[in-house]
Design a protein that fits this description.
The chain folds into two domains: 96 residues, Glutaredoxin (3-Layer(aba) Sandwich), CATH 3.40.30.10; 104 residues, Glutathione S-transferase Yfyf (Class Pi), Chain A, domain 2. It has eight helices and four strands, in the order βαβαββαααααα. The protein is an alpha+beta fold. It is globular. A four-stranded mixed beta sheet has the order 2-1-3-4, covered by helices on one side. Helices cover 53% and strands 8% of the residues.
């Protein structure tokens, strides 16, 4: 069965591959699963039909037969759990990969999102100049710990897994910020070099440009 995911009709990131459908597309590409995409507008996301799929009126959603899911992390886990390629066969290694998925979304991403809010929404506040450095210090602390754990390895736990997919997706939000050290920048670049990532990025970019991906 070919699943259907939802994505922004007009992505606010202007084709940078940061919208939440990106990790879902990437996961589907990694496991070789065909999928359909239904584009929704910001107005559509607040209508009852979409709210039945996503109670918070966001994207992405995932539909396959009678199953409807929301939250990109949960969708990526569902894909990884049901298709070979994103979770190791060994039970302990599988558990560690899942742990890294949670770490990416629960530990590393929150201060990064705080920085985005501080930069994009709060930059006109009188306290912005004091708050932003505090947020960036929190990010640096997390990134230092992550970089130390990664060390000189290519991936977080031996082979590439859904944990790396989620972590690279999160870290990409800091590209151009100057906060990624050379080790983590190289880690992100390795993720972006994967053919499955390139296909997913091209598909999402095509929505912004209005041109079908090639290659």
């Amino acid at each position: 069965m070919v699943p259907t995911i939802t994505a922004f009709e007009t992505s606010p990131d202007r084709g940078q591959g940061l919208a939440r459908d990106m990790p879902v597309r990437w996961a589907l590409e990694e496991v070789g699963q065909r999928y359909d995409v239904r584009l929704v507008s910001f107005r559509d996301m607040k209508q009852s039909a979409h709210l039945r799929l996503h109670p918070f009126g966001q994207i992405p959603t995932y539909e396959a037969g009678d199953l409807a899911l929301f939250e990109s992390g949960a969708i990526v886990f569902h894909i990884a759990d049901r298709h070979a390629g994103l979770l190791p066969g060994d039970a302990s290694a599988r558990a560690r990969a899942i742990t890294w998925m949670f770490a990416a979304l629960s530990t590393v991403e929150p201060p990064i999102l705080d920085r985005e809010i501080a930069t994009l929404v709060e930059n006109d506040k009188t306290w912005h100049a004091e708050r932003l450095p505090l947020v960036e210090d929190r990010i640096r602390a997390r990134l230092s710990e992550l970089s130390h754990r990664l060390g000189d390895a290519d991936w977080l736990d031996d082979a590439f897994s859904a944990g790396d997919l989620q972590m690279v997706t999160v870290l990409r939000r800091l590209k151009g910020s100057g906060l990624l050290d050379p080790n983590l920048s190289a880690y992100v670049a390795r993720g972006e070099a994967r053919p499955a990532f390139k296909r997913a990025f091209a598909a999402q970019l095509a929505v912004f440009t209005g041109k079908a991906p090639t290659g």
